[in-house]
Design goal:
Length: 605
């Protein structure tokens, strides 16, 4: 039996500017307001476009702002802690001073215990702390307070991969409830068990984790489209846009991923089994396609080798992802490849025609006093988009903006809207090299889909530094992985491909554990077996991706049915049958994924 909520908002409504942000009186059959209930062990993903009011809703839950209507009920003794996206460190001398400030502040030893696990020195001066250090300090403060409800606003921003893994593990063991806003799809899929969708002023809840969100969203839009078709001709147009818009996006995403897999396969053919780029290619065509060639480059700081001698050839059209922990040398490697930093040894040769655009995580090009029109078109009505003249209002629609905001000042835009505006500005420039440094910070999920599409359609070469695992898996053709020792691993594929290769160095894959002997430590490594596939292997390699998608859809559908709290009482046999079917589908999906990964490794070898 479900436990009663420990926090509720009933009939919640908030006016922002000249209208209702959510909870309009005319909504919900004239009753108005939105209802929200948080149980003691809820794991909730809060989803919505930038500007929908996600952070504002967290502030209302935490009672930091006053609503215009509604009743807030909290179980006595419930402790709520809000991890803000950008907390103010300016009044504090050190990170520890920040952590120990405020009402219900944790004890110093509790903060130190969490900080030690996160690898952050709390005596660091707050003024000079990096974004990653501030984020870890804020996490140490929030988690040390032992909350009953934890509100997390983009908790993975500025965290490296090891810190994200640690946070996922901590939240998995956490006994309380949490509500999280995040653009990190992998983070959301692993941790959430229910989804709150803030959309056009209304709040929907579905008791399925983020993994089932896409199917739910498509179902909702399809139902709205069918309902709108029954009204009048004008609404039929909107219904057509809703239904076709979601469906088209699904098809574009699938088409983009198929193209990405083809590019990865082509790139894998250019890498030898150890992952070292082949620099001795004789083809003149291949050489003319090269835009950056690094030979023997290395870098050392204060006696510490950050990058060991490294060779790599970047081809025209490559999408290169650079991953690793904070301090592993990602930015150093990026700067050496782009010419901002000279290597200690070796050379970097760049094509003479290379013209780059850098989009950095500081959003340094945004002036708060300028309008959107001034940022994009220098105050005019037209903008040149890579040689094509477009009206500025039409252009910003491509980046999910309402054309009416064209004369709005940048300073009042949300963080995600500023990031989207910067993307619109930079993608308009004529270039053949795009450098993205943590581009996913502050972006909502729909904007991330848009960014992936724009990168896929970009004619030039792309270099991406990111900790967003799902984003890398859906955009890059080659991953440069830095392990902190100075070694740079070259892997055809995305983050998961790099992780799989790292695991295979020390762990025997489960699919081979029963029939393969334990790996022998003595070098040299034996040459790989023939990568030629049998007829059955080749057929499995081709059809398994589609089967995995079918199983994922079936799992999402089954989870949605089981989310009905009355199903077990009304039809126990149906509940049992669906539960058994879900168990079988998950097992088949796991086996299919392992089988396909095994075949993919053999193909790439």
């Amino acid at each position: 039996m479900a436990q009663p909520p420990i926090l509720s908002w009933e009939g919640l409504g908030l006016i922002q500017g000249s209208g209702w942000l959510f909870g309009r009186p005319e909504d919900q059959g004239g009753a108005g307001g939105i209802d929200l209930h948080i149980g003691p062990r809820d794991r909730l993903a809060l989803i919505g476009r930038n500007g929908a009011g996600k952070t504002t809703l967290l502030r209302l839950i935490d009672d930091r702002i006053e609503a215009d209507r509604g009743i807030r009920k909290v179980k006595p003794g419930t402790r709520i802690v809000f991890l803000e996206q950008d907390p103010d460190f300016s009044p504090f001398a050190t990170l520890m001073d920040f952590a120990l400030a405020g009402e219900h502040a944790p004890a110093e030893h509790e903060v130190e215990a969490i900080a030690g696990q996160l690898g952050i020195d709390m005596t660091t001066a707050a003024k000079g702390a990096s974004g990653g250090e501030r984020r870890r300090a804020a996490l140490a403060k929030a988690l040390a307070q032992d909350p009953d409800i934890l509100l997390l606003d983009e908790p993975t921003n500025h965290l490296d991969l090891s810190a994200i893994d640690w946070l996922e593990s901590w939240l998995d063991r956490y006994k309380g409830a949490f509500v999280v806003i995040s653009h990190d799809r992998t983070f959301l899929k692993r941790l959430t068990r229910a989804t709150l969708w803030l959309d056009r002023g209304s709040l929907r809840r579905k008791d399925v984790g983020f993994g089932g969100y896409d199917a739910w969203e498509e179902q909702v839009y399809a139902e709205e489209a069918r309902a709108a078709e029954k009204l009048d001709a004008k609404l039929k147009l909107e219904a057509h846009w809703l239904e076709r818009g979601v469906t088209a996006r699904r098809k574009r995403n699938q088409g983009r991923l198929e193209k990405l897999w083809e590019m990865r396969a082509q790139r894998a053919a250019m890498l030898n089994p150890t992952g070292k780029a082949k620099l001795d290619l004789k083809s003149d065509e291949t050489k003319t396609k090269s835009v950056i060639v690094a030979e023997g480059i290395s870098k050392t700081y204060d006696g510490r080798t950050v990058i060991k001698p490294f060779d790599f050839r970047i081809q025209r059209g490559d999408r290169i992802g650079i991953v690793g922990g904070n301090g592993a040398g990602k930015t150093t490697l990026l700067k050496m490849l782009t010419g901002e930093l000279e290597p200690d040894t070796g050379t970097v040769t760049r094509a003479k025609t290379l013209s780059g655009v850098m989009i950095d995580q500081q959003r340094s090009l945004m002036s708060p006093d300028k309008t959107v029109r001034q940022v994009l078109a220098e105050g005019g009505d037209w903008i040149d988009v890579r040689g094509v003249r477009k009206h500025v209002q039409g252009y910003i629609k491509e980046f999910l903006f309402d054309p009416k905001i064209v004369d709005t000042k940048v300073g009042i835009l949300s963080g995600g809207e500023k990031s989207r505006l910067l993307l619109a500005r930079e993608f308009a420039r004529t270039s053949n090299l795009l450098v993205l440094d943590e581009p996913t910070n502050d972006l909502d999920l729909e904007t991330l889909d848009l960014l992936q599409e724009v990168i896929a359609d970009y004619d030039g070469t792309v270099l991406i530094v990111s900790h967003d695992r799902d984003f890398l898996d859906k955009t890059v053709t080659v991953t440069l992985g830095l392990d902190g020792t100075g070694h740079v691993d070259i892997v055809a594929g995305g983050y998961e491909d790099w992780e799989a290769k790292r695991r295979n160095l020390t762990v025997t894959p489960r699919s081979k554990a029963k029939d393969a002997p334990a790996p022998q430590p003595s070098p040299p490594v034996a040459p790989p077996k023939s990568a030629k596939l049998s007829y059955k292997d080749q057929r499995d390699y081709e059809i398994l991706p589609a089967r995995i998608e079918e199983l994922e859809a079936a799992i999402a559908k089954g989870e949605a049915i089981l989310a009905d709290p009355d199903l077990y009482t009304a039809d126990p046999q149906k509940f049992a049958n669906i539960s058994k079917g879900l168990e079988n589908a998950r097992a088949e999906k796991d086996a299919a994924e392992e089988r396909w990964l095994d075949l993919a490794e053999r193909v790439e070898a």
